[in-house]
Amino acid sequence: MQDHSIQFEPATERTELIARYEKMRYGMFVQFTMNTFLDQPFWQTLKDPLPRPETYSPTKLDVEQWITVAKKAGMRYAVLTAKHYLGFALWDSKHTDYDVATSGNKTDVVAEFVKACREHGVAPCLYYSLGVDVAHRRDKAMTEDEWYEQARNQITELLTHYGPITVFWFDGMGPVPAARLQQAYDTVKSLQPDCLVMMNHGHVSGTRLRRWPTDLIDGERTLPPPEGHNPWMEHDGKTYYIPMEVCDTSAQGTFSKGWFWEPGEQMKEVERELLALYQRTTSRGANLLLNVAIDREGKVPTATVERLLELGEAINRGGTP
């Protein structure tokens, strides 16, 4: 990524843009990528030989079904894993050959996702692994400058080819230097000033902001304290307004064992557990981003649909989110 002469920074007040995000409260974390088609545990795939692109081969891909389910379940935004840790891109990227264009199903999933979101009134958001990318950082052994230039180019593709994006959700932050975080943030803001940036923290209340700059923080599988999230947060002696989100699979891991779909996974009756997760999260001032693992056909599994709709009905009985 290139240096910017002007650095952007997060909001120092509760802006209208942030208020709209806070009011959404409930979203779908769409986990669908190369890992969906692998039998190995997620962390093992980071060490294994890189799967060939044609391994990705959904047979009944139905992106609109995902968003129809999200809408019916009361979810107001959705986050798609456009590029996860293995580096496989769910769009035809001109900056890699490890993408849908060389795979077993050449559908531009990002395009279909954004289109479906707009048609159904669900805010489209995109996930991008910034620091972890097996295909390029490990196997191609790119230099740091080469890698971050590719990242800048891919972020630019995502923010110039698909219209307004509500949140750009960065992950894989461990190896990313602070200056590169600023450059990534600036790239997003220079292309879409109204796009909120999430630098995934796995944040615990009371701890410092480890990934900066960021408009939002995520407590990955971590709730705000009982007294609620305090969005007024300090960084380098200055106070900012930073809302919180919690991303999770379920309260007790009964809705989905992991982030990605797994063969033979058994669903349990979890309405009560999921409703408790939703209520604890939102009552403490955070949004809930609930993980939904897409199967190898390319659809939300029937059992998952049933649980999501049950949860949506339960939420409505207790008050619309």
What would a concise description of this structure say?
31% of the residues lie in helices and 16% in strands. The chain is α/β, with parallel strands linked by helices and 321 residues long.
What does this structure look like?
The structure is a single chain. By secondary structure, this protein is α/β, with parallel strands linked by helices. It has one domain (16-317): Alpha-Beta Barrel (TIM Barrel), CATH 3.20.20. 31% of the residues lie in helices and 16% in strands. The chain has 9 helices and 10 strands. The protein has helices spanning 16-24, 42-45, 63-72, 109-120, 134-138, 144-160, 178-191, 271-283, 302-317, and strands at 26-31, 77-83, 123-129, 167-171, 196-199, 217-218, 232-235, 238-241, 244-248, 286-293. The strands form 2 sheets. Strands 5-4-3-2-1-10-9-6 form an 8-stranded parallel β-sheet. A hairpin with a 2-residue loop joins strand 7 and strand 8 (238-241). It is globular, with a radius of gyration of 19 Å.
**What's the number of extended β-strand segments?**
10
Shape: globular
CATH homologous superfamily assignment: Glycosidases
Biggest sheet: strands, sense, closure?
8 strands, parallel
Share of β-strand residues? 15-25%
Strand order of the largest sheet: 5-4-3-2-1-10-9-6
CATH architecture heading: Alpha-Beta Barrel
What descriptors fit this protein?
9 helices; 321 residues; two-stranded antiparallel sheet; 8-stranded parallel beta sheet; alpha/beta; TIM Barrel
